[in-house]
Amino acid sequence: MAAAVEALCAELGGAPAEEPPYGADPPARLRSALSRLALAVQPGKLSKSDEFVLRAALDGAEHMVRTEAGLGRAEPPEERLQSFVFLVVLPVVGRRRALELSRRAGRIWADSEPA
User: What burial class does residue 53 get, using C-beta atoms within 10 Å of its C-beta: 0-12 exposed, 13-18 middle, 19+ buried?
Assistant: First the structure.
């Protein structure tokens, strides 16, 4: 899942992932990728309230992935990835662009799935 966000981030000219971000911890890797994505699309400094919303979205995404992993489930479905991307970039770019980016992340993830 994080790989799809990292690919979208790279498409947008965002910073590459560190080697490896937060070790091999998938929830932390996803959070790091989502954070870099928000920075890649950020037109300027966020307001305090937008920064708070962004942190809450990052916390929520990480918590959901940790919960899924704790329950022994595989990666959440594509729709959840799209929701994570949408909620993280929404305070930065607005609803229309956030929807475009979330759909693009879903397509990247679907295209990377083994047939």
Answer: middle
